[in-house]
């Protein structure tokens, strides 16, 4: 007799962000199975590889970690000059990350303003989601 598992909760923006954070801190060899186990540990939900890969942010973070780990594993030793370069790059990436988080917050605030203003003017969600017109460049 096959035992049926209870379906996990849908992945919302908060859960996707948490999964991306798990990937950001990943230090060992990465596989989908290991990621699924880690997510189950932290989020108390078990998702399939297909479900996770369906979300662009998760898939691209996973692929980036896989590529970076491969690049790092190819070169095990670093010279002091390379270490200094890596430290400088780390500082640059930290500053960029801080700036991007601020930009994200500003864009979310702008989006909230636009949503409110469009709602008060009677613009429907369907009108806002309409595709951009195709530009005929002939």
Average of per-residue pLDDT values: 87
Strand percentage lies at: under 5%
Domains counted in the coordinates: how many? 1
Q: What string, H for helix and E for strand, traces the elements in order?
A: HHHHHH
* Cα end-to-end separation: 65 Å
Helical segment count: 6
Major β-sheet, in short? Answer: none
Derived structural class: mainly alpha
Low-pLDDT runs: none
Please tell me what the overall shape is. Answer: extended
Radius of gyration: 21 Å
User: What is the strand tally?
Assistant: 0
Helix fraction, binned, reads: 55-70%
Summarize this structure briefly.
By secondary structure, the protein is an all-alpha fold.
List the helices and strands and how they pair.
Layout: H1 13-24, H2 32-43, H3 49-53, H4 56-74, H5 80-120, H6 125-129
Helix pairs in contact: 1-2, 1-4
């Amino acid at each position: 007799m096959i035992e049926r598992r209870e379906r996990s909760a849908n992945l919302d923006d908060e859960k996707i962000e948490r999964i991306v954070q798990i990937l950001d801190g990943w230090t060992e060899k990465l596989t989908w199975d290991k990621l699924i186990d880690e997510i189950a540990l932290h989020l108390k939900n078990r998702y399939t590889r297909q479900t996770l890969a369906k979300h662009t942010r998760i898939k691209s973070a996973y692929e980036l970690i896989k590529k970076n780990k491969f690049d790092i594993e190819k070169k095990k030793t670093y010279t002091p000059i390379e270490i200094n370069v890596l430290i400088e790059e780390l500082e640059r990436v930290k500053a960029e990350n801080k700036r991007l988080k601020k930009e994200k917050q500003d864009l979310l605030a702008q989006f909230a303003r636009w949503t409110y203003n469009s709602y008060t003017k009677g613009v429907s969600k369907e009108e806002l989601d309409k595709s951009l017109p195709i530009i005929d460049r002939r």
